[in-house]
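Please check this chain.
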Amino acid sequence: MELIAYFDGDWCGGKQDRKSTSGYLFKFLNAPISWCAKKQPVLALSTCEFEYIAGCMAACQAVWLKNILKEMDIEVSRPITLFIDNKSAINLARNPVLHGRSKHIDAKFHFLREQVNKEALQIVHCSTELQLADMFTKPLKVDRFIKLRSLISITKVET
């Protein structure tokens, strides 16, 4: 029983406030069970910081979903896998040492690092082509949208 997530976003995509949009998709037994797209509460200064904040949002959802499944007597394999396409954010989440690139990031966003260090979550790099969360966070060309939609197992229903 594996719970996996993809998270990504659109850095500084807001035309007026330059805030980024984060998104995630959770799959359980290869079926989508939870997804979200939301404007980030703060302005990110880099793609690394932006992805790290998106990862925190996904980490919170992962912990909540795991608890819901546990209440239904469904045991989820540990750790929950989070797929991301930014290697700098992966390194920041794995590195417990605070340094120049992260000292300005609000402490609440370090929840992701805490979960990775406790081995409740693992962060895995995935290529941009396989980043399913792109579907929720940025404008896509039609062929890319259709490909991602099929990878998520969502099909068009004719009426």
Summary: The CA atoms of residues 37 and 71 lie 26 Å apart.
